[in-house]
């Protein structure tokens, strides 16, 4: 990561999808002068068709602005479709050879998506939990969080102009059924060092109360099912491995 700051250097945030909406997350961070900017991308996701889009199964963000730009790396925060579902679709359109970084669980799911779309999976680079990657002027550290899928991460993006905390999806769950707990020490250290800005998941932020732990869901299901005398069918989100 370069430490020198040029007179024309800027740090910019480009939200192409997933901001002020649910789904098709595609956010980019750029550093440098406007005529020679370097980029990293956080997530390549899809959203699903609705009654307003009959006949359409998947929708992804338009990456046109980034085509032909200097993309140093793509970082995936976790394995939900609204964050990884467009990798096989958009990676070829970006016309880049940028490596794609993800923690091991996410990487395996993305690998199959790339193969399915005929995209070379050798560009996919697994990163250890808590790992750090240098990509051009950016130094990106994966910070372990909790969510409804294994290995959710925030991205601590360090640049010569300051650090951005890009949270991805999260909730504070002290007792997740699978995986690690939130890296509170890592987040505290970031706060102590100073954060220039936080780009944060805000789903249901205006709902009062607390998000329950997966442990409370588990016990609730046990209590309900144990009262039944006949067979019980239970449906759940396919990616919620713990449930």
UniProtKB/TrEMBL annotation:
Keywords: Exonuclease, Hydrolase, Nuclease, RNA-binding. The keyword Nuclease applies. Pfam families: Lactamase_B_2 (PF12706). The keyword Nuclease applies. CDD domains: RNaseJ_MBL-fold. InterPro entries: Metallo-B-lactamas (IPR001279), RibonucZ/Hydroxyglut_hydro (IPR036866), RNase_J_2 (IPR042173). Gene3D superfamilies: Metallo-hydrolase/oxidoreductase (3.40.50.10710), Ribonuclease Z/Hydroxyacylglutathione hydrolase-like (3.60.15.10). Residues 25-221 form the Metallo-beta-lactamase domain. One of its GO terms (molecular function) is RNA binding. This is MBL fold metallo-hydrolase. It comes from Hyphomonas atlantica.
């Amino acid at each position: 990561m370069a430490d020198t700051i040029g007179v024309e250097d800027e740090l910019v945030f480009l939200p192409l999808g997933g901001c002020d909406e649910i789904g098709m997350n595609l956010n980019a961070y750029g550093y440098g002068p406007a005529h020679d900017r370097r980029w990293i991308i956080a997530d390549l996701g899809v959203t699903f068709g609705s009654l307003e889009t009959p006949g359409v199964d998947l929708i992804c963000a338009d990456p046109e602005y980034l085509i032909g730009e200097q993309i140093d790396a793509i970082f995936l925060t976790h394995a939900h479709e609204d964050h990884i579902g467009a990798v096989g679709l958009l990676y070829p359109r970006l016309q880049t050879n940028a490596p794609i970084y993800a923690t091991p669980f996410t990487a395996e799911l993305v690998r199959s998506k790339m193969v399915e779309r005929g995209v070379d999976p050798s560009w996919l680079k697994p990163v250890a939990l808590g790992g750090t990657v240098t990509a051009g002027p950016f130094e990106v550290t994966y910070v372990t969080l909790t969510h409804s899928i294994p290995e959710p991460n925030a991205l601590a993006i360090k640049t010569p102009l300051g650090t951005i905390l890009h949270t991805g999806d999260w909730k504070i769950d002290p007792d997740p059924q699978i995986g690690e707990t939130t890296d509170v020490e890592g987040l505290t250290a970031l706060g102590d060092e100073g954060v220039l800005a936080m780009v944060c998941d805000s789903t249901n932020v205006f709902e009062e109360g607390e998000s329950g732990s997966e442990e409370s869901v588990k016990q609730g299901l046990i209590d309900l099912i144990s009262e039944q005398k006949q067979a019980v069918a239970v449906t759940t989100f396919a990616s919620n491995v713990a449930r």
